[in-house]
């Protein structure tokens, strides 16, 4: 059963449910989006870095035996891996590439369509060359056109040009989707972060509590993958979401991850200790 979209509740209100979920679990799987979640949103995508508190909290969780930590990002796998250390699992390109247990799996359809993404990125470089500060990020399996630094008067035309190029050269193979001040070009088939989270969760023992934290539209499928048995946490405003909880900012993400690395992990560890039988208790 999935959770219908509604307004996520502030995380403080949801702590009793989170505690109960952790107390009933043997392990925790924590899946984390990168931009807007671990790293504050910035103008230049190359300049995005996790806050120090998030970096430390992720390192602590990655060293906690009862916790599996994963980063699930829209960035290319190689890119996001360089930006945050510690997790044993990374998914890049919105789940199209997945690195775990020493292997990297790339979705075969995305692999086949990578040449077309590359071609479109080159065409866009030329078509958008006169738009000030419009930037194309070629991520091999997907591409991103960035409008955050484009002058407001030029943004509509830049978006129109992007749509035109993808319509013309993408055919039925590629589609456009929207993110925070970006348009993303990717293979036109139903695969997203939620599928990656399901694959990651399938490797965990049955009594694992799954938590997903993210801030954007592509994180919604991942919230649906963990809710309602697990915990989805949407970062930012109170837009309708399939996540049940909300935090305001990457700083609040760090507070929650620190709590999870101390109190949260203890709740899970305690549920591991067998309860004393009446005979032992005498
Ligand atoms: O799934 P994520 O890890 O959150 O990645 C989503 C996209 O994030 C990046 O773009 C966003 O962050 C930039 C840096 O803060 C910002 O300038 C941009 O406006 C945001 O949309 C990244 O560059 C994209 O490739 C990711 O798809």
TrEMBL record:
Q: Does the keyword Iron apply?
A: no
Q: Which cofactor does it need?
A: Mg(2+)
GO biological process annotations for this chain's record? trehalose biosynthetic process
Catalysed reaction(s) here are: alpha,alpha-trehalose 6-phosphate + H2O = alpha,alpha-trehalose + phosphate
Matching InterPro entries, A to Z?
HAD-like_sf, HAD-SF_hydro_IIB, HAD_sf, OTSB-like, Trehalose_PPase
Q: Which UniProt keywords apply?
A: Hydrolase, Magnesium, Metal-binding
The answer to keyword Signal applying to this record is: no
Superkingdom classification of source: Archaea
Q: Can you name one GO molecular function term for this protein?
A: trehalose-phosphatase activity
What EC number(s) has UniProt assigned to this enzyme?
3.1.3.12
User: What does the record give as its pathway?
Assistant: Glycan biosynthesis; trehalose biosynthesis
Physiological role: Removes the phosphate from trehalose 6-phosphate to produce free trehalose.
Name the record gives this protein: Trehalose 6-phosphate phosphatase
What is the protein's species of origin?
Answer: Natrinema zhouii
Taxonomy, top ranks, is: Archaea, Methanobacteriati, Methanobacteriota, Stenosarchaea group, Halobacteria
* Annotated gene: otsB
